[in-house]
Amino acid sequence: MNDAVFLRLGLTVILCLSGLVFQRTKIIPILQMGWIMIITCFNTMSVDWLSNFEIYQNSSLYHGFFGWLMNFFKNQFHVDFSIFNGVLAAISLILIFYVIVKETQRPNIVLSFWMIFPMIDNIVQKRYFWGFGLVVIAVYLLIKVTNKWLAIVAFELLILLAYNIHNAYIFFWFLPFFLLLSRKKQIIIVFIGVILGLIFSGSLLSISQELFPDLSSKVNLYFGALSNIPIASLLLWGAWQFIQLYIVYELYRNDENVFGNLIIGSNIFFVILIPLYIFDPVFIRCFRPILLFNYIGMANKITVYAGTGNQILMNRRVFCILIVDFIITLVTFYLFDVSSITSVGFDSMVKMIYSNNSFFNLK
Predict the structure, then answer these.
(1) How far apart are CA 163 and CA 141, in angstroms?
(2) Which one, out of 17, 195, 237, 340, has a CA that is 20 to 30 A from the CA of 184?
(3) Is the pLDDT assigned to residue 218 strictly greater than 90?
(4) d(Cα 229, Cα 362) in Å, to the nearest integer?
C-alpha cells in the first residue's frame, strides 16, 4: 500500500472516530460529508466500474427515466462516464445528507457508521447508488408528510424513478402498504413469507423468470446457483437481519410516534429477505436505505449528560446497544469489504477505491 492510499484511509478512520467521540461538534460532520463526497463522487475505478461503464456506453438501449437521464448527459453535454457517475452520486449524497441533518442532532454519529458500512459498497455498486437518495427521500416523506395517502403517492412516484434506475428497489413498492397494517399482521405476513421462501427456495429461479421475464439475466445471475455454503450464509445473514430488527425494537418499542413505528415496521418488512441469503448476501443492499434510518434512530437515542464532578454519562442501555451496533457494523464491513473468503478482498473493494480518485489528480 503506497503512502497516498495509506493517508487517505487514515483520514477516513480519523474522521470516523472523531464523529463518534466528538458528538456535538459542528465542524466534524461538515468534514465528514466533504470527505464522503470526495471519495464517492471522484472515484475512477472499482470492482463494478466496467459493467456500469458499459451501461452508460450503451445508453441508447435503455428507456424510461434512466434511459432519458443517461442520454441527456451523454448527448446534450457529451460528458464521459466518470462525470456522469460523479454528478448522480453527488445528487444522491446531497439528498442523503439533507435527511441526516434534518432528522438528527448528531449527524456525525450517523456519518461515522456510514463510513464503516455501507460507504464502500455504495461506491462499488454505482447504479444502485444513483437511486439511493431518491429512496431515502421517499422514506423521509412517509415520516414527515402528515397526509398519509399523499405521502404514499409521493413515495411510490420516487420509488418508480429509483426502480427504473435499478430493479433492486422493487421491494420498496410494497413497504408503505405494509406499514399500514397492525404490528401483529406485519409479523404474521413476514413469518409466512419467510417460511414459504425457504420451502420454495429451490423454485425461486423458475418463479422469478415467470414473474420478471424482462429481467432474465439478473434472475439467472442471482438465483442461478446457491451460495457455496447456503446454510451458513442463511444463518449468518439471517442473524444479521434479526439483529438489525432487535436493535431498533429495543430503542423504539415504547415510542408511539411516526418515526418509531416506521423504523420498526420497515425492519420487520425486510426480514422477508432472509430466504434470499441462501443464494447471495448481496440482497442486503435492498435493505441499505433502511439501515441509514437505523443509524439515525440510534443517534437520536443517544443522550449525554453531566454527572457528578467532571463525569459525562450516557444511558447504560443505549450505550450497550450502541456498542453492539458498532461491532456489528465493523463485522459487516469486514465480511463485505475485507475478507477474501466472503468478498473479493480488501485490495479490490477498498484499496482500489482509495487508489483511483480524480480529485487527488486535480491541478
Answers:
(1) 17
(2) 237
(3) no
(4) 45
> Hey, how many other C-beta atoms are within 10 angstroms of the C-beta on 200?
12
Q: Give phi and psi for 314, each to the nearest 5.
A: -140, 150
Identity at 161, one-letter amino acid code: L
Residue 324's Cβ-count burial label (10 Å; 0-12, 13-18, 19+) is middle
Instruction: Name 312's bridge partners.
Output: 306
**Residue whose entry in the numeric block shows the C-alpha cell 475478507:** 339
Instruction: State pLDDT tens for residues 190-209.
Output: 999 999 999 988 777 677 66
In our burial notation (b when 16+ CB lie closer than 10 A, e otherwise), range 19-44 reads bbeebeeeebbebbbebbbbbbbbbb
Q: Select from 173, 164, 208 the least CA-distant residue to 55.
A: 164
H or E segment and range at residue 312: strand 312-314
The pLDDT value recorded for residue 306 is 54
Across 134-163, b (16+ Cβ under 10 Å) vs e yields bbbbbbbbbbebeeeeebbebbbebbbbbb
How far is Cα 170 from Cα 129, in angstroms, rounded to an integer? 14
Strand, helix or coil for residue 304: strand
Q: Please check the confidence at residue 226 and state whether its pLDDT lies above 60.
A: no
Q: What is the largest CA-CA distance in the chain?
A: 68
The dihedral sign for the CA sequence 164, 145, 176, 133 = positive
Who wins on pLDDT, 9 or 218?
A: 9
End-to-end CA, the chain? 24
Give 91's contacts (C-beta < 8 A, 6+ positions apart): 133
Instruction: Give mean pLDDT, residues 286-303.
Output: 95
Rounded Cα distance, 90 and 87, in Å? 5
Distance in angstroms (rounded) separating the CA atoms of residues 52 and 58: 10
Output the pLDDT for position 2: 83
